[in-house]
Specification:
InterPro entries: LolA/LolB/LppX, OM_lipoprot_carrier_LolA-like. With 205 residues, the chain is mainly beta. The chain has two helices and eleven strands; from the N terminus they run ααβββββββββββ. The longest helix has 16 residues.
């Protein structure tokens, strides 16, 4: 079984003070902000790779602000849902849920109503290579909660991957493919009052 909670990175190592961004960095960060704030719904296939090489795949849904869902393909019995300010990690085999606040995880930055990559969010690195833009960030007042690196295609800009680092320096990588945006999603797909819900998370009506 994959260490799913490491994807949320609850207690990473201390972070060095971030350098001041260059003019080019600031321009790229403005593009990232505009892209993320313009993103409402997203559906994609994902592949998750843990530090130990364990892999899993499934379908990811994002409905900004506030909602996210990861359905893992069998044999992984896992379900991850964000809604109402909480992340639910549910093991279907054990029928055991665990819940943490969205605001206590670096992944929660993606789900904010308005994403601003300054102030209470610190950008620690901006890197460019082979048409990709990598932005590493963490919550300014709570760096111990984790850091996340978002990876974007630059032309056109599109979220392709993220990496989260846990307290032991282990990295969990999530790569997206077959990305669709602007979909009409079923609100019930993000309701975790009953973990048995959701036959069809996309509403095509």
């Amino acid at each position: 079984m994959l260490p799913l909670l490491s994807l949320l990175a609850l207690a990473p190592p201390a972070l060095a003070q971030a350098p001041a961004p260059s003019a080019r960095d600031r321009a790229d960060l403005q593009r990232v902000e505009a892209y993320l704030n313009g993103l409402t719904t997203l559906r994609a296939r994902f592949i998750q790779i843990a530090q130990n090489g364990a892999t899993a795949q499934g379908t990811a849904l994002i409905w900004r602000p506030g909602r996210m869902r990861f359905d893992y393909d069998p044999p992984e019995p896992l379900l991850l849902i964000a809604n109402a300010g909480q992340f639910l990690h549910y093991d279907k085999e054990l029928r055991q849920p665990s819940i943490v606040p969205v605001g206590s995880t670096p992944l929660g930055i993606l789900l904010r109503d308005r994403i601003t990559l300054s102030g209470d969010v610190t950008v620690s690195a901006v890197q460019r290579e082979q048409g990709l833009l990598r932005v590493t960030l963490y919550r300014t007042e709570n760096p111990a909660e984790g850091r996340i690196t978002l990876v974007f295609a630059q032309e056109p800009m599109e979220l392709r991957q993220w990496l989260v680092v846990d307290g032991q320096g282990r990295t969990t990588r999530v790569t997206l493919s077959a990305i669709e945006t602007g979909l009409r999603l079923n609100r019930a797909a993000f309701d975790f009052n009953d973990p048995r819900f959701m036959a069809n998370p996309v509403d095509n009506n």
